[in-house]
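fyi for ur records
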Amino acid sequence: MIPHPSAVVRALASAVAVTTLLAIASCSGDGDASQASDATATPLAARTSAPVPTRTSAPPRLTQAGAQAALITEEDLEGDWNQVKGAAAWGDTLLIGKVDVAQFLTSKANAADCQRLLDALYDDDLLGEPSGASALTGFEQGDSRLLYQVAAYNPVRLSASLAWLKTLPVKCDQFTATDAKGGKRTVQVTTASVPKQGDARQGLHVTVQGTANGEPATLTLDVAAVRVGNDAITVTAGGLAGGAHPSLELAVRTGAQRLKEVQSGKTPAAGPGRTG
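which gave:
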């Protein structure tokens, strides 16, 4: 019996369909294997191509020789400033006094902060005790003085000291201190501008009205503290003749640059008027 043509066509179509499905299945299987291989290889490739983190070395500690090299000289200052010996023993007696605690009705802690300020100005440790090398120098111009200090500090304590200085114009805007003989002194503390040097900075303007040698006198001090890494510079300038803010700003700009050069292992450049 001869099959009907339509039956032959259907048989051929079925055979082609089966062959196509087998081919698709084969291709699909190869694709899955390829994808599986890629999936297995990708994490390894990613791990091998990832950048290796590098360790950053800690900045070198300030040495005593470095602290000395970072000090400014009279050639770094404009005017008639003369470098003098014995600056470590400076301390104006107008800064010696006991803060009147009764004046601080709302916060006795503020009285303690104001006492700390007076003591720190007299003892030249505005930022607290250095943790490493330190050096200081002093200059005189008439009745004015400029004290400059470079020192290494504990970074946490250094940040805390700068934050503390920032609060003083509010806590100690005006208060009274009493000397050993019962004499009254009026102290005023305001914020002062500081050149944008270093990593952090704070400036103060302090006046102390009292008597010196039996005569009315006013001590005026411009103060700046600048952090450069884990080290810092402090400048106190002024006297009975008034403040010395322009000289303080020049000392900060020059001094911060000198300290940076020392920290990077360089020898500070000579100041104006000096040969290298």
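Helices lie at 5-49, 64-69, 108-123, 155-171, 245-263. thats all i got for now
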